[in-house]
Design a protein that fits this description.
Two copies of one chain form a homodimer.
Chain A: H1 2-16, E1 19-22, H2 27-40, E2 45-51, H3 55-69, E3 73-86, E4 92-104
Parallel strand pairs in A: 1-2
Antiparallel strand pairs in A: 2-4, 3-4
């Protein structure tokens, strides 16, 4: 159990830098963030995270980045989940979330 | 090239029945469609397809179905893509799309 927690924390720390949280800005803002992150060269994977209505913006950003700006990248994995969010008025409700893992392709055929 | 087209057509024909196209209705409409499709019993996989702003509704529907109505189901795969759409005024533009594959779990541990 203790070991599992440690592992999780390590993963979190390791990926924190290359996680881009997608909100309600135009997709190109997040595309720019993806390109910048890849160009830093410290990581060959970038994660786009979004909740609710921003999910479609995250998908747009991933697709634009992959097709036009980081052509040697690919969608390695996509995860969806449900998060329990407490709104300002104290009500709890469920919100869907998505994580899109964009990776640099290992090798060109 | 010709081969690719044929392959695509075959896939389309094979999956047509269990594909649910997600539009702009509330997520519960599509949850109902998912439950109905699984209850028919002819298939242990249902595909939710959506484009543009409807992508988040498709994710909502998949999450609600999986968590509340078809508890022995899981998200087997998620694919995202870009489609070239011609709008009413003849302009071409790109739209992101998603396909969410919901499957009945093979076995309970």
């Amino acid at each position: 159990m203790a070991e599992k927690t440690t592992e999780k924390e390590t993963v979190k720390r390791k990926t924190e830098e290359n996680v881009i949280f997608v909100g309600s800005k135009p997709p190109m803002s997040y595309v720019l963030a993806v390109v910048t992150e890849f160009n830093k060269g410290s990581s060959d994977e970038v994660v786009l995270k979004a909740r609710g209505r921003s999910i479609s913006i995250a998908v747009d950003a991933a697709e634009i980045a992959r097709n036009r700006f980081v052509k040697n990248s690919e969608v390695r994995d996509i995860k969806i989940d449900t998060e329990n969010v407490t709104s300002n008025d104290g009500k709890k409700h469920n919100v869907s979330s998505i994580e899109i893992y964009l990776s640099i392709k290992k090798e060109n055929k």
